[in-house]
Specification:
253 residues; alpha+beta; 2 domains; seven-stranded antiparallel β-sheet; four-stranded antiparallel β-sheet
Length: 253
């Protein structure tokens, strides 16, 4: 029996070593091709939004490939874990994007951040914002505090495991109407994420509070709720940055 176990272990170790080596070799080749396709100078001139939308169509293919590999090796094996780690590394940790802020194109370095329990990832400009992981929700907020008297600038990301978006968005609508009586009707959107959007303003002054909420599927039986708060004067600043940030939002497992 020991000989059989040793033989099995040697096979497992060999598969593990070869698989990780192959994945690491594939990683550079895959990303070189993707970056050339998605982030070439010519495409950047057309604007980042179109490129990010295309990236969203490509990433599910990568994730599907990863799922196929895991079916073969199983999540319960060390090989499966190593392969998954290799796939996860395909999300580049840092990159430069061009985003339109207050009517001007701006080159920005952004860094990959993980949500609570790594349920999602998105890119954040860490010179301006920070992601605070919480037990029930994550908060993205400004690094530097705002001047006294200004409303908060935050983006809250929360997962609701047992309620579908079309049901949950109606519950959120009734809650938000308490602070934003003139909340717009629920709207289906495809960008910056695909799902439902709620938007409202508590006045028309420069410091009037703005809410922008999205309810999207978590790919299972629940939803992600992404709620942005800023103020009217910051709509083309923080509001635009939140929009570009959310374009990079990807659900992962």
């Amino acid at each position: 029996m020991n000989q059989v176990n040793n033989f099995d272990k040697r096979i497992s170790d060999e598969i593990h070593a070869r698989t990780v080596q192959d994945i690491r070799g594939m990683k550079d080749e895959i990303w070189n091709g993707l970056e050339k396709e998605l982030f070439s100078d010519e495409r950047l001139k057309r604007g980042v939004r179109r490129d990010m939308n295309k990236r969203k169509r490509v990433l599910p293919i990568i994730i599907t490939i990863a799922s196929g590999i895991l079916i073969v090796f199983s999540l319960q094996t060390s090989t499966g874990t190593a392969v998954m780690k290799g796939i996860k590394e395909m999300f580049v940790p840092e990159k430069e994007i061009i985003q339109n802020i207050e009517g001007m194109d701006e080159e920005t370095d952004v860094q990959l951040n993980e949500g609570t329990d790594a349920e999602y990832v998105l890119y954040i400009d860490e010179t301006r914002y920070k992601l605070i992981n919480g037990e029930s929700e994550d908060i993205i907020t400004t690094i530097d505090p705002l001047p006294e008297g200004y409303p908060e600038v935050t983006m809250e990301i929360k997962q609701v495991l047992d309620t579908q978006p079309d049901v949950l968005v109606k519950n959120i609508e009734s809650v938000l109407k308490q602070d934003f009586p003139e909340l717009r009707e629920i709207e289906e959107v495809i960008e910056p994420v695909r799902g439902f959007q709620l938007h409202g303003a508590a006045g028309n002054e420069a410091k009037s509070k703005i809410v922008n909420a999205y309810v999207i599927s978590n790919g299972k039986d629940g939803s992600f709720v992404i709620t942005q708060y800023y103020f009217l004067e910051a709509a083309e600043g923080h509001g635009a940055r939140f929009h570009h940030m959310l374009e990079s939002f990807e659900i992962v497992e």
